TrEMBL record:
The keyword Repressor does not apply. Residues 122-199 are annotated as: Disordered. The keyword Signal applies. Residues 193-230 form the Gram-positive cocci surface proteins LPxTG domain. Residues 1-37 form the signal peptide. This is LPXTG cell wall anchor domain-containing protein. InterPro entries: LPXTG_anchor, TAT_signal.
Length: 230
């Protein structure tokens, strides 16, 4: 039995089918390879607190475990202010986290750059912004046990006013009266007698008194005599 001749049309059709199959296989392999390749979406960053200290963590969930160099920069007005640090991470499906010690300030901005071979060389978008509350709270002075210092001061004011010496007497009260014994005569028998024990006018006054007594007695005597004569 002789072989059937193969026509050119059949050969061309077969080649076309094989070409389509090869292209499909290459496409599937390419898509599969890209699916397992490292990419920037597998990296994430976060600013957290470790007690009173601030830290920045970067997590890599690349299942292929491609070594990636992670660099953290502090930003200021869109420019790198300083380099915080640089570490190498090999990710896994469960995720591998690396930590950068950084005493970050509230609402600060950091740029995280990832370099993984020829597959990744870019920043994590968007930039990392720290929380608005710092890790370590500012120390505030403890309130005093007493309610307030002012009331106690006010309360002590009346006591101080009570214990303060009385106001000095006025000039009219404190100044002793001037000695006027030499300027105005004192009544007889008072200041002069008290000061010297005798008065220069005493004999004269005594003489006048005796004369008045004698005149009075004489008048009485003559009156009584005249009444007897009658």
């Amino acid at each position: 039995m002789s072989a059937l001749p193969i026509s050119r049309r059949t050969v061309a059709r077969s080649a076309r089918v094989l070409g389509l199959a090869s292209a499909s296989a290459a496409l599937v392999l390419g898509v599969g390879g890209n699916a397992f390749a490292c990419n920037i979406n597998e990296f994430s960053a976060e600013a957290k607190c470790d007690g009173d200290n601030g830290v920045i963590t970067v997590t890599d969930v690349d299942p292929t475990g491609v070594p990636a160099t992670v660099t953290v920069y502090l930003q200021n007005n869109g420019a790198d202010l300083k380099k915080v640090g640089e570490q190498v991470v090999e990710g896994s499906r469960e995720g591998v986290t690396i930590t950068f010690a950084e005493d970050w300030k509230p609402d600060a901005e950091y740029r995280i750059h990832v370099k993984a071979g020829n597959q990744v060389d870019e920043d994590i978008k968007p930039n990392l912004t720290t929380p608005s509350t710092a890790c370590k709270k500012e120390d505030t002075p403890a309130p005093s046990d007493s309610p307030s210092a002012t009331p106690s001061d006010d309360a002590s004011t009346p006591a101080e006013e009570e214990s303060s010496p009385a106001p000095s007497p006025s000039e009219g009260e404190s100044t002793p009266p001037a000695d006027t014994s030499s300027n105005a005569p004192s009544p007889a028998g008072e200041s002069n007698l008290a000061e010297t024990g005798a008065d220069s006018n005493t004999p004269l006054i005594a003489g006048i008194a005796v004369a008045l007594v004698a005149i009075g007695g004489g008048a009485v005597f003559f009156g009584l005599r005249k009444r007897g004569t009658r």
